[in-house]
Amino acid sequence: MKDFAGKTAFVTGGASGIGLGIAKALLGDGANVAIADIRQDHLDAAMAELAGEGFGADRVLPIQLDITDRAAFKAAADATEAKFGSIHVLVNNAGVAVVGPTELATHADWDWVMGVNLGGTINGIVEMTPRILSHGEGGHILCTASMSALVPVGGTAIYSSTKAAVTSIMECMRPELEGRGVICHAFCPGAVQSNIADAGATRPGDLADTGYAEADKRRQQGGNFMHLFQTKEEVGARVLQGMKDEELYILTHAEFLDGVRERGDATTLAVQDHLPVNEEYKATFAMLFSNPAIRAEVERQRALKAGRG
Ligand SMILES: NC(=O)c1ccc[n+]([C@@H]2O[C@H](COP(=O)([O-])OP(=O)(O)OC[C@H]3O[C@@H](n4cnc5c(N)ncnc54)[C@H](O)[C@@H]3O)[C@@H](O)[C@H]2O)c1
User: Which of 24, 72, 194, 235 has the fewest CB atoms within 10 Å around its CB?
Assistant: First the structure.
């Protein structure tokens, strides 16, 4: 989709940080946007910020939604269609994080982050994909992953595994849907100015038991690095362009180049290519050995790079 004017987008976690940045970019390009967020205070603040930039209630629908609640997700989708008509763009963006030594993590730490980052994303996909396919006008499904999906580091097992999973979902769905005009993207930002350090405020009481209470206190005293991070407007603009360019992987930060390359090199070198290839196995299961969407992405990224000079 090259032009989002008059189209409808649904952005989870759309009232803060990256989600709000994406919502602004889509609004700026003419889309109507539902911003769905668990926090009413974030929704109120976002509506005020958007109104200050000329985007009022005629173009923005604020919806209080916990993405782990499937019935509420359906109701939110219905409300969006009732106000704006067919949904074209799903931005599965809401997310939370805990980090620290994996041996300290409790079941509740895993369940909370998996439930929101992966479970909530799955809820979005199950609820919205048939709706986006149904009208035949095309669309986009974008999941906010993270560079930690591509460069997972120690201390981030819970968070990184959710982000790897949503990246994988986009990699698998891309070839399934693109022939029908629905383009899937894995958005993998580095650090962005946001409120994610405050994510614990939405942690459900029954998942409160954490192994990271002490580590969290220490981290909160660790300093403020926001000046090193990209702004939500910068990444929002990047996402909009990435959607228009149909990038499978939408990345933001040059600092990760070595890490991404090392992972690619390490996995390539680990292939047991000294062993003979069973040609019958290879021909019989050809669909398992290479993803056409990833193959095409190599050419797409080469062309985009060449265009940048
Ligand atoms: N900020 C970064 O540096 C960074 C880097 C890489 C990836 N990300 C990812 O970007 C996404 C957005 O995070 P952010 O950094 O903008 O944080 P943020 O906290 O500013 O925004 C996330 C929003 O999601 C909402 N939310 C949380 N749980 C929810 C739920 N269950 N249902 C609905 N809404 C919920 C929050 O209320 C918040 O408004 C997340 O998926 C995060 O993992 C962030």
Answer: 72
**Distance from the first to the final alpha carbon of the chain:** 24
Residue ranges lining ligand 1, Cβ < 6 Å: 12-13, 15-19, 37-39, 42, 65-68, 93-97, 116, 120, 144, 146, 189, 191-192, 194-196, 199, 202
For this structure, is 159 an active site residue?
Answer: yes
pLDDT above 90 (res 218): no
Q: What is the pLDDT of residue 219?
A: 66
The best mutation among 65, 127, 194, 250 to test binding of ligand 1, ranked by most ligand atoms within 8 Å of the C-beta, falls on 194
Ligand 1 atom with the shortest distance to the CA of 194: 20
- Listing from the earlier edge strand, what are the strands of the sheet with 249-251? 60-64, 32-37, 8-12, 89-92, 139-144, 182-188, 249-251
**57-85 CB burial, b ≥16 within 10 A, e <16:** eeebbbbebbbbeeebbeebbeebeeebe
Catalytic residue among 159, 212, 249, 281: 159
Domains of the chain: 8-257 (3.40.50.720)
DSSP character for 120?
I
> How would residue 237 be classed by pLDDT, with cut points 50, 70 and 90?
very high
What's the mean pLDDT in 175-201?
A: 98
Residue among 58, 44, 1, 47 at smallest CA distance from 23: 47
- Note the pLDDT of residue 68: 98
Q: What is the helix, strand, coil percentage profile of the chain, to 5?
A: 55, 10, 30
pLDDT band at 223 (very low <50, low <70, confident <90, very high): confident
Q: How far apart are CA 175 and CA 130, in angstroms?
A: 16
Residue nearest atom 37 in ligand 1 by C-alpha distance = 39
The protein residue whose alpha carbon is closest to atom 8 in ligand 1 is 146
Closest atom of ligand 1 to CA, residue 97: 43
Q: Which residues pair with 142 in a beta bridge?
A: 91, 185
